[in-house]
Amino acid sequence: MVIFRKILYISIITIAVILILCSFLSLFRNSEIRYLKMLDFPRIQIFITSLISLTLLVIINRKWAWYDFLLVLGLLSGICINGVFLINYTVLVPKDVPTAVDINSSDTLLSLMLVNVKMSNRKAEPLINLIEIKKPDLILVMEVDQWWKEKLKIIGQEYPYSQKTINDVAYGMTLYSKYPLKDVSVDYLQNSEVPSFESNITLPKGNS
After folding, report:
1. Helical H runs in 31-187?
2. Which pTM was predicted?
3. For residues 149 and 165, is the Cβ–Cβ distance under 8 A?
4. So what's the pLDDT on residue 208?
5. Is residue 105 within 8 Å of residue 48, measured between CB atoms?
6. What does the pLDDT read at residue 97?
7. How many whole angstroms separate alpha carbon 28 and alpha carbon 26?
8. 147, HSE (Cβ side, Cα atoms, 13 Å)
9. Where are the beta strands (DSSP E) in the chain?
């Protein structure tokens, strides 16, 4: 039993150190290093595993040393870091976009294409061909840099209305529309590098 407890204790310490490092390194999610960007995705897994590790550490530890308190502080900090991001996906925070109700008229419906091109990808032709086939009313393209902006100029005749916010940290975004965009605003709701667009769209019959 003593040996099992010791093995479990060492395992928890190892896992806790990894979780703490991942939590703090995830704060650099705007870095151009893809491995740091990836830490932005498993936040809920890191959050839950940190809670479990903290609980087990408190339960099985009989003799508290200074590094045990340091681990507890690190796990609590990691839980707070990830909790700040995760709370935006709970009922505690209101929706940015309300749920649509009572949509009956086809005049109010739009087709929307969402595309993440992957900034390092340098093959624009498949996307342009897909746009030609699908012919959506709106196209939202993500991870757009200057290269992609230039390549997508070709769709400008079909989509004369656009909003472009370009950057080189894989958060550039462009919106192309067949219909007029009115009162376009660019917001940074959660992160200074991640843009969000807000706009009214004038539909063919003049409603928006």
Report:
1. 34-38, 43-60, 66-86, 125-134, 146-151
2. 0.63
3. no
4. 61
5. no
6. 72
7. 5
8. 11
9. 112-116, 138-142, 161-165, 173-177, 181-187, 196-201
